[in-house]
Amino acid sequence: MTNSIADIHQADVLLVTGSNTTEAHPVISLEMKKAVRRHGAKLILVDPREIELSNFAAIHIRPRSGTDVALLNAMAHVILAEGLEDKEFIAARTENFDAFKEAVKDCTPQWGEDVTGVPAEMIVEAAQVYGRAGSAAIFWAMGITQSSHGVDNVQALANLALLTGNFGRPGTGVNPLRGQNNVQGACDVGGLPNVITGYQPVADENVRAKFEAAWQTSVKIPPKPGLTVTELMNGVLEGRIKALYIMGENPMLSDPNTNHVREALEEIEFLAVQDIFLNETAQMAHVVLPGVSFAEKEGTFTNTERRVQRVRPALPIPGDARRDLDIICDLGKRLSGSNGKTSSDVIRPVSDWNYAGAADVYREIAALTPSMAGISYERLDPHGLQWPCPAPDHPGTPILHKEKFTRGLGKFTPLTFREPAENPDEEYPFVLNTGRVLQHWHGGTLSRRSEGLDWIVPEGEIQINEEDGVELGIETGDMIRVTSRRGEATGKACLTNKLPRGMVFMNFHFVEVPTNALTGAAVDPVAKIPEFKVSAVKIERV
Amino acid sequence: MIKPDRIVTTTCPYCGVGCMLNLHIKEDIVYRVTSPFDAPANHGNLCVKGRFGYDFVHAKDRLTKPLMRKNGELVPSSWDEAMGHVASRLLEIRDQYGPDSIGFLVSAKCTNEENYLLQKVARGLIGTNNVDHCARL
User: Fold this and answer.
1) Looking at residue A342, what is its pLDDT?
2) Least buried of A40, A133, A143, B9, by fewest C-beta within 10 Å?
3) Range list of H helices, B26-137
């Protein structure tokens, strides 16, 4: 998020798109509802489904799946046509405006209606409400990003915020809601194929030299970015990847095209899994290393607003399990043929894995990362710190891009609408959309072991539109089979008027209803994120 | 009312909101979860998972011993044998096929410190940028 949870209530307008916030980020949805009810903010909701936030929306736009760029370009067209753009902001803080203006020139509301199915008047009204707001904040989640043009979708949202000067003030900004507790942190500390800590690119020779020298390693960091999750699985089947070390993930449930993942993990020469349960992926491993849960370890998580917060051990370690940090240090020792010497440097050489604890590791991260240089465990009590925090006396940064953008000027991106990779057709006439439910979590490894949560939602239902159900002779509770070009899944049907006609909605929490057996292999060309929100499927009674 | 042996302040392990938790513990069981009202992200609010979803910590099927596949079955082993096997297989595969034949999935559920160190193993010891996690999923 460019902004903070604490300033959501200061927005005049909230544009929420591709996020069922109530179910996926429940506590942030409370702030949104407070903004609407107590502070009079107007909510523009973009979601093909009727969701709980629909009850709070001034305008609920329900576009055809995968047509986000068309909708947002048409809104930009209206803002320009009606002179609602922030001319001062555009002149002082942005570039590439003329190319952008040219790109949306023909994106009239009528064109928008033809592509998205949203009435032209509604597009105009939404653009007027967003464009006239004193402060407007945009929020999104995987409904925007999990698309074969996810990067375009995000850039289209950024274009709207640039066009109206909605950056750098409370109640504004572009705010992705991060899904996992520490997905922000895992990205921040180098858990990505193209960047090391604080987004320092591996392609930069100086960055590589800096880390090689600091770690005192004779191994060369390659200049080429590595492979992403989906590419790694393909790499196994192509014979390029021979070993995988998987920590705290269950790609058998969370990756697209499950059958393909299973083939890859059956094929692989060596698979090591570090986890707290013998999940579907661990069952296929050659070695399983038992780590510990959040309640038994020390460390930090970084939340969606870039706030680094403490995690504290509360319980003893079960049985012979080990703290994950200790497992990794043991691995490091063995791989480096360490001589056991302990260094007194803040940044330890790769021959030394004798860290005194998590705080000691964080000191090393801070020493290597300008944007986190001022963060230390001493400063994290009681409320954490939001990066960038470049110095020990820096208060942290609740709002990004106040005076200037990280890159200097904010750049408009001219965009052309592209269709999703797999639209419904005669053979597979329905659109499959996937997401979460409030009571469960991701692959279900944690939440399904919670008796209360599993009692409330014990199975993965397959939602279809009521009228579609009547037409197909399907009733709520019937077993139905959903089939795509990749695989099939069977489960109980649930008829609902909350879905548009032609849509099937499934969550991916239940191994018994393997939703990702159906999803496709299409990914965004830049971000390599799979298109989970649009797959063509057919349904039949079993 | 049950009196806790201790209350530990920590951060919720479910979604990315980052709610602050107080775990109330009696005889090493988390029996109640509350949140401080001055918590910056959640002001004392919690969702159904954040307040009640912690049975998994005490689950009977938690892994408590390293496992190794022998004759097709996963069987318990010592830490020394398991770690020794992981290290020697990774080094063999690196030497035979090159560093880019190995991939590491770090974790959006694990801490910053764990993720940093695992990518340090990948980049600084194996010599590959094949490091990713479920950020896209």
Assistant:
1) 86
2) A40
3) 48-52, 79-97, 112-120
B131: containing domain: 100-137
> Which residue in B8, B101, B107 is closest to A241 by CB distance?
B101
CA distance A470 to chain B (A): 33
Q: Which residues of chain A have pLDDT under 70?
A: none
Cα(A484)–Cα(A431) distance, integer angstroms: 10
B131 and B105 part of one domain = yes
Rounded-to-integer distance, Cα A103 and Cα A442, Å: 38
The ipTM assigned to this model is 0.98
Task: Dump the DSSP string for A503-520.
Answer: EEEEES--TTS-GGGTS-
Best of A311, A347, A371, A456 to disrupt the B interface (most B CBs within 10 Å) is A311
Question: What does CATH list as the number for A430-541?
Answer: 2.40.40.20
Global confidence as pTM: 0.96
Name the nearest CA neighbour of A215 among A57, A336, A300.
A336
- What does the mean pLDDT of chain B come to? 96
A13-17 and A200-201 strand pairing: unpaired
Instruction: Match 């049985």 to its residue by tokens.
Output: A319
A368 vs A372: CA distance, rounded Å: 8
Q: Which amino acid does the sequence have at A75?
A: M
Residue pLDDT, tens place only, A278-321? 999 999 999 999 999 999 999 999 999 999 999 999 999 999 99
**Inter-chain touch B42–A27, beta carbons under 8 Å:** yes
Domain total in chain B:
3
Residue B74 falls inside a structural domain: yes
Q: Is residue B72 part of a domain?
A: yes
Give phi and psi for A79, each to the nearest 5: -60, -40
Task: Say whether A22 sits in a helix, a strand or coil.
Answer: helix
**Tokens found for residue A198:** 């604080």
**CATH of A5-177 among 3.40.50.1820, 3.40.228.10, 3.30.420.10, 1.20.1250.20:** 3.40.228.10
Q: Is the dihedral of CA A31, A33, A36, A37 positive or negative?
A: negative
Tokens representing A287? 């070695």
Please give the backbone phi and psi of residue B101, each rounded to the nearest 5 degrees, phi first: -90, 0
Q: Which residue has the tokens 């986890």?
A: A275
Angstrom distance (rounded) from CA A64 to CA A66: 6
Token pair of A16 as six digits: 């929420």
**What is the distance between the alpha carbons of residues A128 and A122, in angstroms, rounded to a whole number?**
10
Instruction: Write out pLDDT tens, residues A223-273.
Output: 999 999 999 999 999 999 999 999 999 998 888 888 889 999 999 999 999
End-to-end Cα distance, chain A = 44
The strand ranges marked E within A354-510 are 385-386, 410-411, 430-435, 462-465, 479-483, 488-496, 503-507
End-to-end CA distance of chain B: 43
Partner residue facing B57 (CB), from A217, A242, A315:
A315
Angstrom distance (rounded) from CA A98 to CA A107: 15
A187, A315, A441 ranked by CB distance to B25: nearest: A315
